[in-house]
Amino acid sequence: MSNRQRPATSPQTLRIRGARQNNLRGIDLDLPRGLLHVITGPSGSGKSSLAFDTIYAEGQRRYIETFSPYTRQFFDRMDKPRVDSIEGIPPAIAIEQSNSVKTTRSTVGTITEINDYIKLLFPRLATAACPKCHKTIRPETARNIVREAVRRFAGQTLLVTFPVSTGDVEKRSPSQFFEFLQQQGYLRVWLGKKTLRVDETPPETLPAVVHVIQDRLAASDETRLTEAIETALRLGKGRILLVDAGTDESHPFSSGWHCAWCDLDVRPPTPGLFSFNHPLGACPECRGFGRVIGLDWQRVIPDRSRTLSEGVVRAFQSGMSQECQADLIRHARRHDIDLHCPFEDLPQADQDWVINGERRPGEALSEVWDNGRWYGVQGYFDWLETKTYKMHVRVLLSRYRSYNECPKCHGGRFQPETLNYRLTGADDEALTLPEMARRPISPLRAFLAGVKIPEGDHTTQLLLDQVTSRLSYLGEVGLGYLTLDRPTRTLSGGEVQRVNLTTCLGASLVNTLFVMDEPSVGLHPRDLGQLLGIMRRLRDNGNTLLVVEHEEAVIRAADWLTDIGPGRGETGGQLMFSGPPAQIAAQKDSLTADYLLGRRSIPVPAKRRKTKKFLKLRGASLHNIEKLDADFPLGVFTCVTGVSGSGKSTLVHGLLHRNLLRERGEPVEEDAGRIKKLTGIEHVGEVVMVDQSPPGKSSRSTPVVYLGAWDHIRDLFAQTPAAKGAGLGPSTFSFNSNSGRCERCSGLGYERIEMQFLSDVSLTCTSCGGKRFQPHVLRVHLDGQSVHDVLEMTVTQAITFFKDFPKHQKITVPLQTLEDVGLGYLRLGQPTSFLSGGESQRLKLAARLADTEAEASLLLFDEPTTGLHFDDIARLLGVFHRLVEAGHTLIVIEHNVEVIKSADHVIDIGPEAGAEGGKIVAAGTPEEVAQNKDSRSAPFLKAALEEQNHEATLLAAESVAPPVATDNNRIRITGAREHNLKNISLEIPRDEFVVVTGLSGSGKSSLAFDILFAEGQRRFLDCMSTYARQFVEQMEKPDVDHIGGLPPAVAIEQRISRGGGKSTVATITEVYHFLRLLYAKLGTQYCPACQVPVATTTLAEVADKVRTASQAGPVQVFAPLVKSRKGYHKEVAEWAVRHDFNTLLVDGKLIKADKFPELSRYREHSIDVLVGQISKASEEDAIALARRALEIGKNTARLVRGTESELLSTEMACPSCARAFEPLDPRMFSFNSPHGWCETCRGFGLVYDSAVKTDQARTQLEADLQEEQAREEADKDVARPCPECEGLRLNTEARNVRVHHRPIADFTRASARDAAQLLDTLVFNNHDGTLAADILPEIRQRLGFMQRVGLDYLTLDRPATTLSGGEAQRIRLAAQLGSNLRGVLYVLDEPTIGLHERDNRNLLDALEELVKQGNSLLVVEHDEETMRRATRIIDLGPGAGRRGGEVIASGTLDEIRASKNSVTGRFLANPPQRPSRGSRRSLKDKDLHWLELKGASLHNLQNIDARIPLGRLTVACGISGSGKSSLLRGTLVPALKDAMTRRGRKPSRKAAPPPYDKLLGAEHIAGVHMVDQSPIGKTSRSTPATYIKVFDEIRQLFAGLPTSRMRGYTASRFSFNTDGGRCETCLGQGAIKLEMSFLPSSWLPCSECNGSRYNHQTLDITYNGKTIADVMSMTAAEAAEFFDAHPKIRHALRLLVETGLGYLTLGQPSPTLSGGEAQRIKLVTELSRTGATKGRRLREDQRGNFYLLEEPTIGLHMADVEQLIGILHRLTDEGHTVVVIEHNLSVIAEADYVIEIGPEAGAQGGQLVAAGPPEEVAQVKGSPTAPFLKPLLNL
Description:
Layout: E1 13-19, E2 27-32, E3 36-40, H1 47-64, H2 69-72, E4 85-87, E5 92-95, H3 108-111, H4 114-125, E6 127-129, E7 136-137, H5 142-152, E8 157-165, H6 174-183, E9 188-191, E10 194-197, E11 209-218, H7 222-235, E12 239-244, E13 250-254, E14 258-259, E15 264-265, E16 291-295, H8 297-300, H9 322-334, H10 348-356, H11 365-370, H12 376-385, H13 391-399, E17 401-405, E18 421-424, E19 430-431, H14 433-438, H15 441-449, H16 458-476, H17 493-507, E20 513-517, H18 525-540, E21 544-548, H19 552-557, E22 560-565, E23 574-579, H20 591-596, E24 614-622, E25 625-633, E26 637-642, H21 648-663, E27 677-679, E28 687-690, H22 703-706, H23 709-718, H24 721-726, E29 750-753, E30 761-764, H25 775-778, H26 787-791, H27 795-802, H28 809-820, H29 837-850, E31 858-862, H30 870-885, E32 889-893, H31 897-902, E33 905-910, E34 919-924, H32 926-930, H33 938-945, H34 950-956, E35 970-976, E36 984-989, E37 993-998, H35 1004-1022, H36 1026-1029, E38 1040-1044, E39 1049-1052, H37 1065-1068, H38 1071-1082, E40 1084-1085, H39 1099-1110, E41 1115-1126, ...
Parallel strand pairs: 3-21, 3-22, 5-20, 20-21, 26-32, 26-33, 28-31, 31-32, 37-52, 37-53, 39-51, 51-52, 57-63, 57-64, 59-62, 62-63
Antiparallel strand pairs: 1-2, 1-4, 6-7, 6-18, 8-11, 8-12, 9-10, 9-11, 12-13, 14-15, 16-17, 18-19, 22-23, 24-25, 24-27, 29-30, 33-34, 35-36, 35-38, 40-49, 41-44, 41-45, 42-43, 42-44, 45-46, 47-48, 49-50, 53-54, 55-56, 55-58, 60-61, 64-65
């Protein structure tokens, strides 16, 4: 069997059924995955509709659905395709030809990730040099210094000295300084090249630095010398000076990045220093752009051949600036400067005088003017800069500004400190990073081949290999001429596509669908083989390639060929063939098969045209072309060819076209190079660049309009009797005229509806039904056809229709040209903006052909065969020959040999690309060029000119596909060092269920999330559009050498927050996002007062309101321009000025339009324009003002009288009371926004007895945060439903919007199950049905997910904060699993948390189903049942924190059990006995008190009674969602707090009745504590040490040291939260936040304190050799041992160790702690409080505290669970009552008392199923827990 047929039998198939997108006719297609597919067919047959609009759109949509709604809105989301089903589709990436990059910050180096690897390579290999003396700089070690000293000073006596700054001793006098040195034990200093004793009289003054002599010794005494140097380095802060005592010769050394000779620091080499997209490395002048905006002298003086009198300075030739021209002439005469000499021929001094004037350095411009001197052209622009507050001045300046090379970095982009480092490569050449970036790819690769890597440094070798491999990929796709600093925006579409192709190959993604659009565009035939090699390697990595292509070589190289046809447009859209290419030979009705097999071909012209007239270009230089002479024959068809990058476009575009325009006096924006002479221009008429840009940007631009035929068609309609009778002229039949077009859609035929969370929807206009015209126009018929019917005709149909009309030639001749160029399938009314590039180019060609009266023109084409099938190329060549016969000259840049062989004249540029190109290799007829041995095109041209056996070559190509690699089923990780991972390397099988386990803190999440997920998602995003990537949370590359075989990744974490106080089940499942959209787009506003549907009002009614209001005094009428949108909105002010509006209302403040302020880009702004002010208006004036305001405001305006404001609208007004309403918007239904929330409760749905004050807040966000925090802390106040909205959270307008007579509350108050049934009752038709078609499935899908995971009992308005951990986790899991993807790596973080054992099994079944569907599963988990299901377990350890980060074991469950080193294995093999203490605390003691809660009824609790023994360990268990948290957290804890707060006081009358009847036994409780998983601090200044209070003791200890007391330091000196001891540069944070435009903010280690947080005086204080910063860097385990002699400190630290947190550092920022870690730290705090003092109080009071812990085993390994159980027992033994909500069977089995709630979840739960010791609960038959608990207790 051939390699091509190999995968056809694979079960992994992409199945498409019923594809109907665009012109596709219900195609059914099966495409085997893992192959190189080519889709071909005639242009317009439907190839792109299948590949991009159907397959890619669905693959991309499904993966993007895994992102947040906020992120999704920034992706270019395509419409959901019209297809019945698509199965087996992996995440899809499109590699298209478009180049949408606009920023110069993106370069070839950044988009290929080469820069990312170079920035890691430079710190490892680059050599630093002093910028002053150029000596090499490297940090010296004491050993190296000793070795150098022995060599240099052999046999000599040395002085070892270290520098001391005299400022370090607080500017004491010289005598005091010497006395200070004596106190420290030093007797001599080296000063002024001599030794001075410090016990003698010092000099009067001292230098800034004095060298203190550490030792005087013989250089041969290495032991003593080593000791002296080490001490000197420590005291001298890394700097020493060695002095030859005999000769006074000295030699400085430094252990840091410091030039010891110049005493100059250089910045240490870090990756950020070598990235211009990082604040550390970017040039401070241009911020890494390489360019700065400034005057463009090419624009100011565009034609230097002009004289001063002729107006060489363009800026002086118009408007008020003409006075400057007169000033220039007057001053030039005074200085005897020739006014009639061309400016370029003037002496340089005179040119400088014209530009710079007579202004002296530092002199004010006004002084020059006042003294009557010439201010210069530069002075004129400097004066304009002072007037930029005026809009017209800013517009004027913009005409003469452009981006110029940055004067500081000279375009290199990097700051000067980066240039201190050079990399040495081939031939010992050393280059800086900017120099490397400017070198072309091919020579750069040769340079890097000579880079020497230290032996054994595999990581550096891996980085270098990544760079060189990516450079090789670029070379292989014919881009070796590019440079790394080439801006992406300057690349052609073909170049961008090939660069992106290499990026995707370098990303090493697998299981991905890459959809490509003609990657061969712009490639010379010689380079095609290399391109195919790249594509095959991408395929062999485990990906599927879907390539839309017409290039014969690519088609023949495909594994699978799909042919769409048979024709174009409506005659296409059918599946002609799908299978291995060789089998297409049997296809008889396929145009593709005809050309591939030679049944059809493009013939060689019988003769070549000759000419005697030429365009002659002499001495042309631009880019890689130097002093080139070229002759272009006129009146013939010339083809310019050559290898990619040889200089073809530079010659034709840059030199020929631009210089032709310049010679004709037309403006030229781009660089036109330098030429000596251009002759023959007199023989050329119009010069036209026929490119592939759209002929029109508006949807009203159509082919028939573009060709000019529509004017004649309109005349025919206007001449009909019906039109004449109605008085309709030709303009009435134009959809660009208001007289006849539909007013609602403005002649577009559709309306664009913005769908915030979905792709926008284009709906047929409801007024005209998509027919564009008003009814009376449509009633006019021409031979039975309306104007709409004519526009719906294809070109072919229209030719037939109009041929019988008189003077039809004006219509049919232009249309026939469209038919001739292969566009007969286009409709007359099809918008030209929707045409492909090839179609646009051919339409322009047709227009040129149709213009028979045009003069002979020069037509320039750049690769016109782009997107053309063989048959279309044949048609195109026919048109070319017709144009030449009509007298035109054609110059075509092309690689297609069919076009080259058909030309009259060929110019071959080369021989190679880049610097090796730029020469004319051959010129002449195709036959002459084909014989040229130096031409790279000759072999391919020669073959095209000769006959070939096409069928034989097609069959011979069958076996070229290489075998698929056999190792594509593993993810390979090399050198992972993220966080605590210790350079681990491992392989993880793909398409399997893999569990990562280990002790808490061992590095599991670092491996799974911070490396695999982050890299998997980052690589996928890096292959997507650069625009979309900038809005996604920036993910840093993890610290890992290499990851191979990694598919796109989706994370399902349990660390995601449940949201704030306003989050509900509906919001976190995204159901509410789409409900808001549904009600905004399809809802009907009802008047709250009248309860009638709001209706539209007329203009007359609005005008009457204005007139009536104006009778009482002046009123202002505003029109809204911007409503709550982010941005600068400068264009709004510019629009207002252009339309003579003077006043704007910006965020409630009136301002002048020409003084528009700088707005905050990231805040929402509202802007209205003052349309007019009127008083006592007449009816006519009121109507005129209202009409104008409503036109500007799009049917909405605002009437302002004094401080009162009223909305005016012709769309939304109550028919009864005339109240106007805002148009419906999704924000109107958001209770997180002032647009939608109830003003009484601000969207919380609850109010409190005491008001929440937010009036001090500076921003809305700050007010929201203050209110939420205040509500969380409002324990004393009893909340009750808001009386205004009754708990619905929305304002009155939103509550009165209905869909099918139902308000949105009907959905939010329903359970997920009931909401789904309610949704099924909604039926929409026509216009509404189109809108609903995208929204309803999104809601149904999410409600269905909730049902699948057993959460359909939850009501949608249930607050997220009241959900149990299990419910919250399953909601997130359900939302993520709905994407139905294939080939994805799902990374899950403990999905079993909060799940009952029974639910756990159901969840694991669902996860296994994901694997069966072709996905990979990587689960961070400690659950034993999950490990049993896994095919592989990876155990990390052996300890936590610094003691972890290693792979201890990897294998099956049995292999892990057998591992001697695995803690997991030991627990699995020998599980602990229960109870671990051997017995339980008695429940029968006479003095045992019970806490009794009666009649609990919160949420689903069914009026239950529950008892809890005091002083015992109680566990509450039950099915997830059964009501455990409702009973304990929602009812018991608030009841206890309320009882303890009131203590005899009566409850408030305003308070809502509590959800229980009675609470007994609360008097036996001393205090109530919720030990939850909320953060222990929200800033980096909060740490474990500060929370458990040991930091106070440590500071006291340091303050009591003798040195501290001598300096007067108190404990506050050692706090990084107060000034005095902290580093003031970073304010004690240890890092500094750097912000840059267009980049995410970066935190850099503080250069002053090196991240220690303290100033150096504080760090002088040490305890047992450790500074306070050293102590804060210790782990809890290390610190417990270090402070063993201090019981107060040791006690709390040992408790941290005993709870499994010994790996945490004392100074670790609190926000970085997990919820489980935070919970255990709180436990430690409670335990540490039970010291002697509290113990005495407890013995007297005999009352303990009540502790509630909710699922404390989250994130805990089995070993950590055992430690936790010990702590729970210890807390209970102290006399406290400990209640734990838990599913972990080990904890349940340890309890003294168990309460089980159930038996099911939701409404089927809320009952007390069992209560008693674990042994009793295990015997209860109705208990869901009993079957799992019984085996554990050996019952």
